[in-house]
Amino acid sequence: MNVGLIADDARKMLMQNLCIAYKGILGKHTLYSTGVTGRIIEEATNLHVHKFLAGSLGGEQQIATMIEQNQLDMVIFLRDTEKVSNYENLFNKVIPLCDIYSIPLATNVATAEMLIKGLGNGDLEWRNLYHSNDEEI
Questions:
Q1: Using CA atoms, how far apart are residues 121 and 3, in angstroms rounded to an integer?
Q2: pTM over 0.85
Q3: 73 touches 124 (CB < 8 A)
Q4: Beta bridge partner(s), residue 106
Q5: Span 75-96, pLDDT tens digits
Q6: Which domains can be identified in the chain, with CATH numbers?
Q7: Lowest model confidence (mean pLDDT) among 41-45, 63-67, 82-86, 129-133
Q8: CB 61, CB 91: distance < 8 Å
Q9: Shortest CA distance to 25 belongs to which of 1, 59, 8, 5?
């Protein structure tokens, strides 16, 4: 499964800790992230992360494109709801795109943990049907 990982600046350490806690599950899947978040995850966990550009430099658009092409199976987007970032409007594309393409999305750590545990239990295997039936969706 392909997992997208995005974290606003104030949530990067939370993302790092989440990935440390669930390294065993995440290590069995392909991880994609914006640049800085991906680097932080790699340094803390030794997991391999396909890193895009920094969010403000186009990484958000690269992740949005993967969603539009049905190439992500799950997205964890830890947002800082207390502070509006300069590029928040760009990331706001991710949320509706996940809805449109039926991609599970977590925007807080509680939901992220549930999705990761589901990933570990095989509960997201239904996404494979989306990959094999892209032309019908």
A1: 15
A2: yes
A3: yes
A4: 76
A5: 999 987 776 555 455 557 888 9
A6: 2-132 (3.40.50.1380)
A7: 82-86
A8: no
A9: 1
